[in-house]
Each structure stands twice: as structure tokens, then as C-alpha cells.
Amino acid sequence: MRSDKYSNASRSFLVETLAKSNVQLKREVANLERELALARHLAYHDPLTGLPNRALLLDRLQQAILQAERQNKAIGLLLLDLDCFKHVNDRLGHNAGDLVLRVTAQRLASCIRAGDTASRYGGDEFVILLPDIRGNDDVVTVAQKITASMSIPHQVGDETILVSASLGSAVFDGGRASCDELIGAADSAMYRVKARSDGSVSVAGGLADVAA
Predict the structure, then answer these.
(1) What pLDDT sits at residue 15?
(2) Which bin fits 50, alpha (ψ -120 to 50), beta or left (φ > 0)?
(3) How confident is the model over 85-126, as pLDDT tens digits?
(4) How far apart are the C-alpha atoms of 108 and 100, rounded to whole Å?
(5) Do both 159 and 181 map to the same domain?
(6) Are 109 and 118 within 8 A, CB to CB?
(7) Which segments in the chain show pLDDT lower than 70?
């Protein structure tokens, strides 16, 4: 009888220990999954703005090009560069510059569809990918939204500042093209705008077919 009592107690202790170990194991697995998800996110997103970074943009752009080639659809690309952004950092400090970048990212994200991509390409440059568009008119529509959004002054502490930008566009609507060619077309259009800009956001590039 006593042996059975000890045996039952041992089994109960073993079951309880295994249950606790199982709970602990599940917690550790959940923590590892969260850490892995965070690592994946950080690998493909800009830590300051939370936008997709250059690596994720290029991956999505490559996929969009392949789909456009197969389905005979158009792709729009917008490249935005903040004008004289260095002056913001120099005069108001890097915290102010970071705030301007975060607000700019939020404004760009609010101007696009769910299937589009607003990315921080590097520094004060942002690239917006517009897959599956009808043509140049769709790009112009988004550019107008961005223009209106960028015309809103930034509130930095006690100061209100207007940060202008230059915006170049390119459209791929058939044939074959690489990511570098499409981005290069939008970049060239942006610098043509910057050279003649009067401080407002402008659009250049139009229907830029970069297909070979």
C-alpha cells in the first residue's frame, strides 16, 4: 500500500514537472519566434522610419518587373530627394533631421495604395514603387498627392520649417528593363528637376520607357 502511495506521488511529481517544462519550452519557442521575426523585419526595413529599405525595395521591384513583362502591365517609380536637408541637420540638429525623415515617411505612406511600396532608399532619398498601373496618369496622380503632402510645414520644437523636395518619375510599360535602369531613369529625372527647382515639389520623367 505504501509503495503504491509513493508510486502515485512520484507519477504526480513527474507529470507536474513535465507540465512546467512544457510551459517553459513553449515560452522559449515563442521568444525565439519573436526574435526571429524582429531580425527579419530589421533586415528589410529602415530602423528610423520603419519603411522598407533598399534591399526590400529592389526585391519587390524585380518581382514587379517580371510580373509586368509576363502580363504586359506598367510600373511606375517615383524618386524623392529632400532639398537642402543637410541644412536642417546643421541648423537644428540631427534629432530634428530624424523627425523630418520620419514625418516624410509617414506622409509618403499615406499617399499610396496598399499594394504599393514607399521605401527609404538611403539618406534623404525615398523611392515609391507603383506596380500594376495604367500608365503615366496614375504616376502623376500619386505625385500630386505627394506634392500636396510635402507642402505642409514641419513642426520641429518651437520652429515651423518647410522642407522642399525634388521628385522624378519613370514608367516601365513593356519590353525588358532592369531595376538599375528604372531607378536610374527616375534618378535622372529627379536631378533635372532639382537643377531648375524653385523650392516646390515637381515631377519630371513622364512616360520614361527604359526598355531595351
Answers:
(1) 78
(2) left
(3) 999 999 999 999 999 999 999 999 999 999 999 999 999 999
(4) 12
(5) yes
(6) yes
(7) 1-6, 32, 35-39, 41, 197-212
Q: Of the residues 81, 124, 173, 187, which is catalytic?
A: 124
Identify whether residues 86 and 15 lie together within a single domain: no
Read off the pLDDT of residues 164-182 as tens digits, 9 standing for 90 and up. 999 999 998 877 789 999 9
Query: Do 62 and 144 have their domain in common?
Result: yes
pTM of the model: 0.80
In this structure, the answer to whether residues 59 and 111 fall within a common structural domain is yes
- Domain span holding position 9: 1-44
Taking the C-alpha atoms of residue 59 and residue 118, their distance in angstroms, rounded to an integer, is 13
CA-based angle 168:160:193, to the nearest 5? 15
Is 180 designated active site?
Answer: no
Q: Is residue 184 part of a domain?
A: yes
Rg, C-alpha atoms of the chain:
26
